[in-house]
Amino acid sequence: MNWVVLGAGHWGVALAVHLARQGHSVRLWGRHPESLPCPSAGGDLSPHFPQVSRPARLTCTTDLAAAVAGCAGMVLAVPSHAVRNTLLSLRESLPAGQMVVLASKGLELETDLRLDQVLGQILKERPFAVISGPTFAAELVAGLPVAMTAASASADLAQEVARSFGNEQMRVYTSDDVAGVCLGGAIKNVLAIAAGISDGLGNGFSARAALITRGLAELRRLGTALGGRTETFMGLAGAGDLILTATSDLSRNRRVGLGLGRGLPLAQVLREIGQEAEGVRTAQALFLLAQREGVEMPITEQVFRVLYQGLAPREASDALMQRELRSEFTVLGQGSSAHGAP
Ligand SMILES: NC(=O)C1=CN([C@@H]2O[C@H](COP(=O)(O)OP(=O)(O)OC[C@H]3O[C@@H](n4cnc5c(N)ncnc54)[C@H](OP(=O)(O)O)[C@@H]3O)[C@@H](O)[C@H]2O)C=CC1
Ligand SMILES: O=C(CO)COP(=O)(O)O
């Protein structure tokens, strides 16, 4: 089968390589030739993964319309801020029947929309799928085992995506909870920043476990208010991805938090990471979204205040510890909010 992957960052390259290793013919599209791994003199995946050899079935192009022509499946792996414009510039040239699979994570900053909502606005009635879950690009490229979730309103499409991506290295589960899967992937990035801040401050393992658990509670609280399902937030695209990114230093979002917690300015931290850390933008959109929905998200709020209002990380940590005491879980009819105990 012919696939095109849009976005030549670490994730786009990793997914393109994964599909090519499965025997698919894959075109990788990126804006700039210098970020594409082909042609590279050494036949490797420079600049992102110079130590890994490039599969023969992987080709590269900077021509967007030519990239999608004749492909049975398309993967969108551009950063969240580029999803709308990339799709809009393709709308007229998308081949009929081409599978569309979203692999980016985040919220659209200008609208607070989930990325599946952005796709819905542009693709109208055309079905699409989302693939998400705890998987680092570097580990996928290294051939390590991973598990992900493919979600679509169309059960047939979810299964087709699971079959296309799934192999002995990648186990793909299917779901129909598109909103939940997108929210899990977006919100965990903000919570990974929080975990990084806590560790950067030297708060310790106990604090990190508490942050992950209470972070999951606020993910579920907003997620269910927006139509996602609790089991999705407890699954690979929620808890799974949150645990991964909140605990591993391979996570760019966690590293943003680590830098801030150690007292470095945000601009310096982002410059040193030099890659997308979606949680930084998402924190802003998420904070506004939670306010509009009337859902309390205390950890998200503190991350937003550190990133955008100059709050010191130690003060943010103290503010979370000094909140009013309350029941851990929602107890219906006992004074909890409609969306559960914050
Ligand atoms: N890395 C990972 O392990 C995973 C990442 N993701 C998600 O994948 C998405 C991409 O992340 P990732 O590839 O890791 O990020 P990277 O920082 O590795 O790369 C981002 C790429 O996006 C390109 N880009 C930037 N702006 C635009 C634009 N307007 N149009 C087209 N391309 C653009 C840049 O290329 P250039 O400027 O050269 O054009 C760059 O190559 C994010 O939403 C992330 O959350 C999801 C799961 C795992
Ligand atoms: O989403 C990811 C793994 O599932 C990658 O996380 P970071 O963007 O924080 O590196």
UniProtKB/TrEMBL annotation:
Keywords recorded for this protein, A-Z: Cytoplasm, Lipid biosynthesis, Lipid metabolism, NAD, NADP, Nucleotide-binding, Oxidoreductase, Phospholipid biosynthesis, Phospholipid metabolism
Q: Which GO terms describe its biological process?
A: carbohydrate metabolic process; glycerol-3-phosphate biosynthetic process; glycerol-3-phosphate catabolic process; glycerophospholipid metabolic process; phospholipid biosynthetic process
Quote the subcellular location field of this record.
Answer: Cytoplasm
What residues bind NADPH, as annotated? 11, 31-32, 105, 137, 252, 278
Q: Which residues form a coiled coil?
A: none
Keyword Glycosyltransferase in annotation: no
Pathway this chain belongs to? Membrane lipid metabolism; glycerophospholipid metabolism
Protein name, entry field? Glycerol-3-phosphate dehydrogenase [NAD(P)+]
Gene that this polypeptide is encoded by = gpsA
